[in-house]
Structure prediction request, 383 residues.
Amino acid sequence: MTQQHTTGHVVIAPDKFKGSLTAAEAAARIAAGILRAAPGTDVRLLPVADGGEGTVLAALAAGFTRVETTVDGPTGDPVQAAIAVKDGTAVVEAAQASGLTLLPGGVKAALTAGSYGTGQLIARALELGCTRIVLGLGGVACTDGGAGMAQALGATLRDADGTELAPGGAALRRLDRLDLGTLPATLAGVEVVIASDVDNPLLGARGAAAVYGPQKGASPADVAELDAALEHWADAVAKLTGSDLRETPGAGAAGGLGFGALALLGARVQPGIELLLGLLGFDRAVRGARLVVTGEGCLDVQTLHGKAPAGVAAAATGAGVPVAAVAGRLELDEPGWRGAGFAAAYALELLAGPDAEPGASLTRAGELAELAGERLAEQFLRP
Prediction:
C-alpha cells in the first residue's frame, strides 16, 4: 500500500473522457468510488479542461454562472450556446458556437463553415459588461481565420463588387476591402486571452488548413484553396493593421481563429490548462490536500505535451501533493507516467478485466471509474 499524506482532503480534477464521460461525470464517479472505500473522506470536485471542448462546463462547475444565447452555428443555422461568467470574466468556448458537432446531419463543410457564432458569444459577454474574455479554442468546423468572428464584432469584409463576403474560409479569396468598423471600439479596454496549446502558424505545411483541414472534411484541393484564401486574408489584415502575425505560434489554432483573435482582438496566448487551472482556483483547492486525482480518455504521449492531466500533475506536485491518474486507456508505460509526476495510474480497460466485452471502457466507463476510485482509496487513503 502506498502511504502518502494522512490528513487533508482529496481533489478530483479530471478532464472529459471523450465518448463516455464529461469531466464532471468522471469526477463524480471517481469520488463515489473513493467514498465507498473510504467513507467520510473530504472529497472536492474540480473538473478541468485544457481550453477545448468542456471548458465552459469546467468553469460552471467551479462556480461561474451559465448564460445561454442563440447564435449562428458553423453553417448559419441557429444553435443554443452558453458562456460562463464570473466577476467580469467570461469563458467563451468556440466549439459551443462553431463546433464540428454542430454541423447539420454531421455533414462537413470545410470550405463554407464559419466562426460568426463565436463572435456573437464574445459580443454577448461584452453586453454583460465583461472586460476579460477567455477564449477556448478547439473542435471547430471552420477554417476561416477568424473572419466570421470579426464580422460578428463589427468588421465588414467585401468583394470587388462591394458585396459582403459569404461565410467560410474559401470566400476569403475574394476579399477586396476590409474595414474593422466598430470592432476596435467594441474591444476597447477588453483583455482577450486565448486558452490553447497549439503552436501552429496560420499558413503552410504546419498551418491551419494543412494540419486541421482534413479533420474538417477538406480534400487536398480544398486544403490548397483554404491555405491560399487564408494567405490573402492575412495580407489584408497586415496591410490594415500594420502588423503581420501569421507566423505567430498559435495563429493556426482552430482553423485560424487564433490568428483572428491575435491580430484583430489584441489577444495573447496562454497554455490552456495553465490558464484554466488559474481560472478555476486550483491553487486554493490543492492547498492542504492529501491527494489529487486527474485523468482523461487516453493517457498517452500527447498527454505529456500540455494536456490537462499533465498540467494538473505539474501543479499538484509543485504544491507537494501526490497525484494519481485514471484513464480509459493507458498507453504510457510505468516509467512514462511516473516521469510525468503520477504516483499511480489506473486504466478503465484493464479494470474491466480480460474477459470484458470490447469497448467496455466506454460503455461501462462510469462503473469502472468508481472501481478506480475504490482502488485509489485502498492505495492512498486507508490507514
About this structure: The longest helix spans residues 220-241. The mean pLDDT is 94. The longest strand covers residues 78-86. The two ends are 10 Å apart (CA to CA).
